[in-house]
Amino acid sequence: MITFHNIQKEFNDGTKAIQDFNLTINEGEMFVLIGPSGCGKTTTLKLLNRLIEPTSGRITIKRKDIQDWDLQKLRWNTGYVLQQIALFPTMTIAENISVVPEMKKWSKRKISSRVDELLHMTGLDPAVYRNRMPAELSGGEQQRVGVIRALAADPDIVLMDEPFSALDPISREQLQKDIHQLQADIKKTIVFVTHDIDEALQLGDRICLMDDGKIIQTGTPHELISRPVNQFVKEFIGNRDNEWNTPVSKIMNRESEYSAHVDNMAQASHKQYTPLYIFGDDREFLGRRQGEEVLSPEVTLHPDTPLDKAVHCFDKTDVEALPVIRDGQIIGVISYKDIVHFLKHAQHHLKETVS
Ligand SMILES: Nc1ncnc2c1ncn2[C@@H]1O[C@H](COP(=O)(O)OP(=O)(O)OP(=O)(O)O)[C@@H](O)[C@H]1O
Ligand SMILES: [Mg+2]
Fold first, then answer.
1. Are residue 53 and residue 157 in the same domain, yes or no?
2. 107: CATH
3. pLDDT band at residue 337 using 50, 70 and 90 as cut-offs
4. Confidence bin at 269 (pLDDT 50/70/90)
5. Is 194 helix (H, G, I), strand (E, B) or coil?
6. For ligand 1, atom 17, which residue shows the shortest CA distance?
7. Residue 22 Cα, ligand 2 centroid: separation in angstroms?
8. Percent above pLDDT 90 for the chain
9. pLDDT band with cut points at 50, 70 and 90 for residue 130
10. Test site for ligand 1: of 8, 16, 18, 43, most ligand atoms within 8 A of the Cβ
11. 129 and 256 assigned to the same domain
12. Is 128 exposed, middle or buried (0-12, 13-18, 19+ CB in 10 A)?
C-alpha cells in the first residue's frame, strides 16, 4: 500500500531527520510509529502527504510514486490529524468537519449526515456540538474533532500524529478503544504516531520503532516483545510500569486447552492442541504428550516466574504454551499469546489484579 524506498531527509540546516528509510505499510493496517522526541516521526508523516519533500528516495502509494499523484487528490485521500490541535477557530465544529467533503463537492445532505455520524461515533452529541465554536470545547473534545475531521471524507489513509496526547487517561482509553473499533469497522490504513509504548502495543498491528531518523525495528507487538533486536528496543519496550515483573501465576489459565487430565487420555489423543500437558489425580504433572508418548518437557515455569523471564523461556523452545508447575503439580498453563495480550492491556489489568 505505502512503501518508502530509501528515503533520506536532510533539512536545510543540515539536520538529518530521516535516513535509510525502507518500509512497507500494508493496506488496512494500523501501523504505529514510535520513538523518542526528535526521532523523525512527524517528518515521516509529512513526507507521506508531501508537506515535506524527501532529499532522495521515493515513496509509493498503491505502487504509484507520490510525485505522480495529483497533490490535491493525495491530500484529500490522506486524512491528517496534526500533533497540535488545529481546528479552524472561526468555523463551527460542523464546518470544521465538513471542509474536505465540501472540497470534494459532496451534497449538503450527505455532509450533514456524515458530520452527525462522526460526532456520534466519538461520543459527542451532534445536537450539542454541531454549532459550537472550537474555543467552546475542551482540549480533549477538540482533539476528538481533529480525529473525526481527518476521517470525514473517507480517505484511504489516515495519518495521526499523537492524536490523544492532550487527553486525560480515561478519555484517552476511550478514544483508543474507539479508534480500535473504527479500524476494525472501516479498515483504513492508519499510520499512528505516539511515544507511548502502551498505546503502541495496544493499537498497533505492527510497530516501527525509530531512533535518530532511522528504523531500529519493525514488527508485531509480539515480535518486538519477544525478539527485540538490541538493548534500545528492550529498554523502550521494558521501560514501562512493572508489568514485566508480574508473576505468571497472575495470568496463567488454570484450565486450558493445552492441558488435560490423564483420565481423558483417550479423548486427549483426539485433541488437536500442541503442546498438550497431561496431569493425573491431584493435578500431578505427568508430562507433555507427544504422539503416544508422554515426555517430560525441557522447559517449565514456576508460578513466581516474572513475565520477562517467562518470555525468555519461550525463546528456548518452540512451543506455544508452557506449564506452570509447583511441587510437582501443574497449576496452570500460560501461552505466548496470553503474555502479549496481557502486556497489551496491562494498564487495565493492573488495576484489577493489584487490588
Ligand atoms: N523544518 C525543519 N528544519 C530543520 N530541522 C527540522 C525541521 N523540522 C524538524 N526538524 C528536525 O528533524 C528532527 C525530526 O523532527 P520530527 O518533528 O520529525 O520529530 P518527532 O519524532 O516528531 O518528535 P516529537 O516526538 O517531539 O514530535 C528533529 O531533530 C527536528 O529538530
Ligand atoms: Mg512529532
1. yes
2. 3.40.50.300
3. confident
4. low
5. strand
6. 42
7. 19
8. 49
9. very high
10. 43
11. no
12. exposed
For residue 215 the three cell numbers come to: 528504523
Which domain range does residue 348 map to? 245-354
Q: Which of 8, 11, 51 to mutate to test the pocket of ligand 1 (most atoms within 8 A of CB)?
A: 11
C-beta 42 within 6 A of ligand 1: yes
Residue 221 and residue 251 in one domain: no
Give mean pLDDT, residues 275-297: 87
Max avg pLDDT among 52-56, 120-124, 221-225: 52-56
d(CA 164, CA 144): 8
Q: Are residues 162 and 13 in the same domain?
A: yes
Categorize the per-residue pLDDT at 349 as very low, low, confident or very high, splitting at 50, 70 and 90.
Answer: very low
Between CA 223 and CA 200 the distance in angstroms is 13
Could you tell me the three cell numbers for 21?
528509510
The verdict on the CB of residue 53 being under 6 Å from ligand 1 is no
State the ligand closest to the CA atom of 39: 1
Minimum-distance ligand 1 atom for the alpha carbon of 39: 21
Q: How far does residue 39's CA lie from ligand 1's centre (Å)? A: 7
When divided into structural domains, the chain yields a total of 2
Rounded distance from Cα 158 to ligand 2 centre (Å): 16
Least confident of 82-86, 228-232, 261-265: 261-265
pLDDT greater than 60 at residue 290:
yes
Residue 289 cell numbers, joined: 504428550
> What letter represents residue 349's amino acid?
H
Sign of CA dihedral 188, 191, 192, 198: positive
How many whole angstroms separate alpha carbon 255 and alpha carbon 283? 11
Q: Which of 205, 240, 275 lies at the terminal end of a domain, its last residue?
A: 240
Alpha helices in 247-294 (DSSP H): 248-251, 265-270
Return the number of other C-beta atoms located less than 10 Å from residue 73's C-beta: 10
Same domain, 259 and 231: no
Distance between Cα 144 and ligand 1 center (Å): 24
Distance CA 40, CA 46 (A): 10
Beta bridge partners of 64: 61
